[in-house]
Phospholipase/carboxylesterase
Amino acid sequence: MAELSFIHRFEAGEDQSLAPLLLLHGTGGDERDLLPLGRLVAPGAALLSPRGKVLEGGMPRFFRRLSEGVFDEADVARRAGELADFVAEAREAYGIGAPLALGFSNGANIAAAMLLLHPEALAGAVLLRPMVPLASPPDGDLSGKPILMISGAADPLIASENPARLARTFRERDADLTHETVDAGHGLCERDLLLMKSWMARS
């Protein structure tokens, strides 16, 4: 494993036609958490999985929050830049192309921030249970960038208006957005897997 700016895991891909996946865990996860999910939804793809650098009560995250659902937006922007720099380092170290982010919860939120602030760093994204990461993101161009958002209809942590606003933000920037809502809470369900596999097969 190369010595890069984030603690991470990397698994080389067997199918070079597939975009590598940038796996971004939720609060309390680590660089191992989403590897099985990545293997499941994109067999043969290279997997790049960093550990968030921010600790909240000893639990890794990708950026600070002020309270539940209230983000430190200055930290969001700084950490999105750090992660974009890490992606550039990893691409050089491992000889991979621009990755498709696959993020859950806090990981989905930092991926959304990267799309809005550093769109060149990602080939696209799968955002599981995302929220709006920045109240007033800068204008940008996401023309044709494939994005899948999956929200939970019964998610106790996210009001339905929030991901709807994020979806509007992506559409205003001309992203190729698919936004699905599943009959679930904040945790993942079988329907999430089916939607991810189907979307990846088409993208």
About this structure: The chain is about 35% helix and 25% strand. The chain has a mean pLDDT of 96. The longest strand covers residues 146-152.
